Amino acid sequence: MELPYELRGAIEEQLALMPAKKLSGLAARLSEDYRSGKPLVRKSYVSTYEDALAYVAFRLPATFAAAYFAMVQVKERLTDLKPKTFLDVGAGPGTAMWAATMVWPQLEHITLVEREQPMIDMGKKLAKHSVLPSIRQAEWIKANVMEKWDIAPHDVVIASYALNELPERSIEPFTLKLWESTEKLLILIEPGTPSGFSLIRRVRERLLLQGANVVAPCPHNGSCPIAQGDWCHFSQRLNRSRLHRQIKGGTLSYEDEKFSFVCLSRTPGASVKGVVIRHPQIRKGHIYLRVCTREGIEEIVVTRRDKEKFKEARKLSWGSVIHW
Fold first, then answer.
1. How far, in Å, CA of 29 to CA of 27, rounded?
2. How far is CA 49 from CA 11, 125, 243, in A?
3. Are 168 and 297 part of one and the same domain?
């Protein structure tokens, strides 16, 4: 997938302000911090404008892809949702609002809560390139999400890649605060790792006790059937620009972002039979599907003998909803 044209142009304009070699070094340090899983030596991953620039180069496209994927899943199952307000808590440079306006262009008011001033400054610079008033006029609030932040409920609330940066004691109260701030839909996204999925599973269970309905990716509100030692995650492939490849030291024209997520609603979504939770395995005359259903995890084999179902199965991908 590609970033929106205006966002892509805005990013390229900002990246052109710094030599690629220096930007590559900053991105490498940021990458090491994110992937280490160790406590921060510094107060923040992003404490300067240069750090924010490195984040935009290294992480923004991937976080956009994950947010967009989750929102498209919601739109497929919550067809009556027409949100007007959108809240991003721990917003970074405002990545998720760009994805949200692609899925729900009718959004009128966007609120972004972010602790780091360099991220806010970067987000405002990028927003100036949008043709949408909702993005250009978004309300930025500088606040630490672990401290007090009182905001009126919004139709859609998102917190992406935020839970894994919180102290253990703060995760539950933060999650409950997000749910209190949600008028209609809450989206939570974490890295597609065992620990990231563990966080998603944990907050899913907690919010089900609060009366939430799982809209995506799960086809049910029951206990998660993923076995111990396994984890549920999804993947989005995004194209890399020449500069993006140069900064990240990659040779491929794409990268795959793996993530775990859950979307919880105040109202039930459309009923589905199952969700494909691994890449379909296409063999001669057979397609093997690993599917999460309301009855648990099922291994489904579709053969050419069932022509219609086989034709439909060939169109399925990791994350696809199954209605049969």
1. 5
2. 14, 12, 19
3. no
Distance, in Å, from the CA atom of 308 to the CA atom of 185, rounded to the nearest integer, reads: 35
Structurally, how many domains does the chain consist of? 2
155, 206: one domain: yes
Question: CA-based diameter of the chain, in Å?
Answer: 60
pTM of the model: 0.92
Residue range(s) defining the domain that contains residue 289: 274-322
pLDDT tens across the length of the chain (324 residues): 789 999 999 998 988 877 777 777 776 777 666 665 544 444 567 888 988 988 898 889 999 999 999 999 999 999 999 999 999 999 999 999 999 999 999 999 999 999 999 999 999 999 999 999 999 999 999 999 888 888 999 999 999 999 998 999 999 999 999 999 999 999 999 999 999 999 999 999 999 999 999 999 999 999 999 998 899 999 998 876 665 555 556 566 677 899 999 999 999 999 999 999 999 999 888 999 999 999 999 999 999 999 899 999 999 999 999 988
Answer yes or no: do 258 and 160 share one domain. Answer: yes
Q: What is the DSSP string of 163-222?
A: GGGS-HHHHHHHHHHHHHTEEEEEEEEEESSHHHHHHHHHHHHHHHTTT-EEEES-SSSS
How far apart CA 312 and CA 274 sit, in angstroms, is 14
- Shared-domain flag, residues 245 and 278: no
Do both 109 and 252 map to the same domain?
A: yes
Given 265, 287, 314, which residue is the final one in a domain? 265
Write down the residue that tokens 């729900």 correspond to. Answer: 104
The CA distance from 95 to 68, in Å, is 10
159 and 308 both lie in a single domain: no
Last residue of a domain, one of 265, 283, 309: 265
Element (H, E) at 267: none
The tokens 């969700």 sit on which residue? 275
207 shares its domain with 302: no
Judged by DSSP in three states, 134 sits in: helix
